[in-house]
Design a protein that fits this description.
By secondary structure, the protein is mostly helical. 73% of the residues lie in helices and 0% in strands. It is globular, with a radius of gyration of 17 Å.
Length: 165
C-alpha cells in the first residue's frame, strides 16, 4: 500500500459517520479503557496508533492528501455527511425524520447527497430522472470506496465495537 493510500484511508475514516461513532463510543470510556480500546481499534482497522489517538482524544482530523478531491471520494464524503445529519435528526425529538425514514439511514442519506449535487436542475421530471440515475451511481460509488479503502460501514460498526470493548 502506498503512503497516499494509507493517508487517504485514515482521512476518509476520520470524516465518516462510522469513524465518529466509534470515536464517541471510546471517549465515553474511563481513561484505562480508552487506551485499550484505541489500541484494539488500531489493530482491527490497521491504523497508526498516534494518529488514531490524536483523532479520538483531541479530535485532530488529518488534511486530505489530495489538492483536488476525486469525484468518487467527494460523493462518499457527502453521503457520510448526510448520514451524520440524518442520525442527529433522528435523535431530535421535534424532527420528523424518525417517521419519514423509519429504520433506514443509508439510502435516505445517499438520496439526500444526490439531491445536493442536483441543485441546479429546475424541471421536476428531469430532476426525478436524474435522481434515479445518480442514485444508482452513488450507491455503487459508496460501496466501491468502502471496499477499496476497507472502511467500516453502518453494519460493521457494532461488530467493531464488540471487538474493541
Amino acid at each position: 500500500m502506498g503512503k497516499k493510500f494509507i493517508e487517504m484511508r485514515f482521512y476518509l475514516f476520520c470524516n465518516s459517520y462510522s469513524g465518529n461513532k466509534l470515536a464517541n463510543h471510546i471517549v465515553v470510556k474511563n481513561s484505562n479503557e480508552k487506551l485499550r480500546c484505541i489500541r484494539r481499534l488500531t489493530n482491527v482497522l490497521n491504523f497508526k496508533y498516534k494518529q488514531t489517538y490524536d483523532f479520538i482524544i483531541f479530535g485532530v482530523i488529518p488534511e486530505s492528501p489530495y489538492q483536488r478531491m476525486p469525484r468518487v471520494l467527494t460523493t462518499y464524503l457527502e453521503v457520510e455527511k448526510e448520514l451524520s445529519k440524518l442520525s442527529d435528526e433522528k435523535l431530535d425529538e421535534y424532527s420528523t425524520a424518525n417517521e419519514d425514514y423509519q429504520r433506514q439511514l443509508l439510502y435516505p442519506a445517499i438520496e439526500r447527497a444526490v439531491g445536493n449535487f442536483l441543485t441546479d436542475v429546475k424541471n421536476d421530471d428531469k430532476f426525478q430522472k436524474l435522481m434515479e440515475e445518480k442514485f444508482k451511481q452513488a450507491c455503487y460509488i459508496y460501496y466501491k470506496v468502502v471496499y477499496k479503502y476497507k472502511l467500516p460501514t453502518l453494519r460493521t460498526v457494532p461488530f467493531v465495537l464488540r471487538l474493541i470493548t
